[in-house]
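Sanity check

After download, print the first record. It should look like this:
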Amino acid sequence: MNTTGNVTVVITYRDSLVKAVTKNIIVVALSIFINYINASLIQTFRKHQIFYANPRYILFCHLVVNDMIQVTLTVSLFLVSYILYKINASVCCAFILMALFTTENTPLNLACMAVECYIAICLPLRHTQICTVKRTLVLIGLIWLASVISVLPDLFITLATVPIAFFRSEVFCLRETAFQNPVLMQKRNVTYMLYMVLVWLIILFTYFKILFTAKAASIDAKKARATIILHGFQALLCMATYAEHTLKQALQQWFPRNYPDSLFACYILFQMLPRSISPIIYGVRDKTFRKYLRRHLTFSTKPRYILFIHMVINDMLHLILTVLLLTITYVLHLLPVSLCTVFILLIICTTENTPLNLACMALECYVAICYPLHHGRVCTVKQTHAVIGFIWLVTVTSGMSDLFITLASSQTDFFHNMNWTFQGEYKDNFARALTKNIIIILICIAISFVNAVLIHTFHKNETFSTKPRYILFIHMVINDMLHLILSVLLLTITYVLHLLPVSLCTVFVLVLICTTENTPLNLACMALECYVAICHPLHHGRVCTVKQTHAVIGFIWLVTTSSTATSSATE
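Expected structure tokens:
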């Protein structure tokens, strides 16, 4: 059976560590890019009711949502195949079914969009009568129904022919391993052939009809013709999935030792590529959609928002890596040291990026408030990108030094071991310790100076002391100053005194923990205040008062102090 051959090849020829990491990074980067673009398009659609009444945009938004689900599912399966390798068969069946639904939806959706465009150009007087919102929603339901009818028989036949014990076993998650009956292979080939013929007939029919209409040299017809050509190109890529199984079988026979690479190439070409270009073809090219989309991208010209979005992306990356590492510790327990090193270095870089990014945001805010006339010249988009590059340079330089020391002092075999921690203890020499302390102290002075200026500005203007937003903000500034001074002081003491009385150390650590935990709580309160101000403006003056703001700040300190004191008492 082909299934057994496929799985055997994958098991026999597994990727090396470097190749596996490279493939996963490429796939995850592409998925983040695709989902980010698609999320922006969905947000644009959701924010403007003009799109709700247009069948073209409803179909397009359905395509985008469908592709986001498909990309998320297939990338999850891709990662699982490398991290866990085998998963429970029942879970695999659920993943495969949803992935198949969304994969088969795409060419059908594109065919419907081509028909709508044909009616708009060739039958403009009947367009509003034929293409209504209600019929568009019914059509989307029929698309899903067609995909479900095509795929669900695989599940029913498998349930009828495979022992129940199979669903409790673990398999390498492919369609061929989840649904193994040979009849399903024949059924899939027939179904895919019918789909391919149907969709291509629709595409070709609409294309030639619009081509004939374009002879009148109408601008709209020319644009529609170009759009239909792109529809055909997109449909060609998406319908290549119908021939993907045949192509994989041929590649397995031609290049048996490179079959994992062939699977990866097919996945990129037939799954990721079509969904990476569809937002550009159908969203960015559309004049109306592009006009509203541009409004959501105006932040890209403001240094403040560029720094903010960099921090958001950095924190997302950090969170994903740490959660992934935490999950691996429970699932695999041990990991190759070389792969662990990559994870740890990325986590260190993203962790160290955040305070540096916040410092740069504080500087930008300081220039905007204290030197408004110079702000446009000092804080440009180009300089902001250079600052972000410098942030990464500083953190990468800091992290890579640990790697180089480890490479120089450890045996090569160490990186082939299954371990989590770096072995050995490396104490800084005098020059390195002095350099680190000078850098930290200079950064601390710069941040503290900016924060001090903000505090001084707050106290000099009484208008700030009556607004809850600025009270919460200045509390965060003071809290961060205290945290920064204490942490730098503790770092300096570790180099100068090396040891410290436990009682004094306890006080330092307790205050540091309190100030660290205060920051996210303070940010949450600021977000709530902003939410009330925008979503419930009539209640803002009653809900957000100065007295209640001071009470909230007291409650923040009460929560963090109680949490820290409880932990200390327990230990």
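If your output differs, re-run the checksum step. Summary of this record's structure: The chain has a mean pLDDT of 77.
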